[in-house]
Specification:
This protein has a single domain, classed as 3-Layer(aba) Sandwich (Alkaline Phosphatase, subunit A). 46% of the residues lie in helices and 18% in strands. The chain has 14 helices and 8 strands. It has an 8-stranded mixed β-sheet, with helices on both faces. Helix 9 links the parallel strand 4 and strand 5. The longest helix has 20 residues. It is globular and about 50 Å long.
């Protein structure tokens, strides 16, 4: 683990550097450790898995029940990464664009349509997936249906997953779609897994949350298993856990500091 704190806005420019994809310089910076790691392991493609609500302290507390993620971290890198918001949409926008919310102005999916209607060429709302496609790279995304529609005609392959009350089934379908997408040889694939976030909102005793963590890890393992050699995995949370007041009484001082700073896990590993 490195003691440096990075930002979610650093992920897109780092992917840009690793894949040699030109993009307008955003707010974020290249994470040199990730670039060096990709060179050392001859990584040719990237799978970005956004594990909703995977805070750094949450991962450290439950890494024992997440063997797939833990294996990647143990043989790769585990970094602390400061989130940019407390809600999913602006965080994912920062992950994808490299800009902070005050610059990309995306706080909901509808904001993407509004910002593009005002200025469709605005680099602050252009994602690394689109920059990659423009550079001749194959890019694909697996995300909720409404979000997927914002990529239509802009990247090579999109998989929209209909929202569901059964979030375990939703993540399972997302994972199956990601595996199918990998069969088409994307240079960059982004996947959003949501079960940790959903169960954090509703769990009263923690057991459901643990099941969501296990399920997320199982899906990470399935994706890793089907990836080709030379694939670099970036697994990151988007924000720390919701429903904090019910978790805080059992939290350690370090976990409280982690939540207050909104620090998420950023795991990198290569197959």
């Amino acid at each position: 683990m490195n003691d440096s704190l990075y930002s979610l806005a650093d992920i897109a420019p780092t992917i840009s550097r690793i894949l040699s994809v030109p993009m307008v310089v955003p707010d974020g910076n290249v994470i040199n450790e990730l670039e060096d790691y990709s060179v050392e392991h001859d990584c040719k493609r990237i799978v970005l898995i956004i594990a909703d609500s995977l805070g750094f302290a949450l991962y450290r507390r439950f890494e024992g029940i997440m063997p797939a993620a833990c294996s990647l971290a143990r043989h790769g890198l585990l970094l602390e990464c400061v989130s940019v918001e407390r809600h999913t949409s602006p965080c994912i926008a920062s992950i994808f664009t490299g800009y902070l919310p005050k610059r990309h102005h995306i706080h909901s999916t509808q904001d993407i349509y509004r910002e593009r209607a005002k200025d469709p060429a605005n680099p602050k709302i252009k994602t690394i997936l689109e920059w990659a496609a423009d550079a001749g790279r194959i890019s694909a995304v697996v995300i909720e249906s409404e979000g997927a529609d914002t990529f239509r005609g802009r990247i090579n392959e999109l998989h929209g997953i209909p929202n569901s009350g059964d979030i375990i089934d939703y993540d399972d379908r997302s994972t199956t779609s990601a595996i199918n997408a990998m069969g088409n040889g994307p240079d960059l694939l982004a996947v959003h897994l949501r079960s940790i976030d959903r169960y954090a909102h509703r769990s009263l005793n923690g057991r459901e949350l643990e099941e969501a963590l296990k399920n997320t890890d199982t899906n990470i393992g399935r994706i890793v298993e089907h990836a080709g050699k030379g694939t670099m995995f970036l697994i990151c949370g988007d924000h720390t856990i919701h429903g904090w007041e019910k978790w805080k009484p059992k939290a350690t001082d370090e976990e409280i500091r982690n939540h207050d700073k909104n620090v998420v896990a950023l795991i990198a590993g290569c197959k």
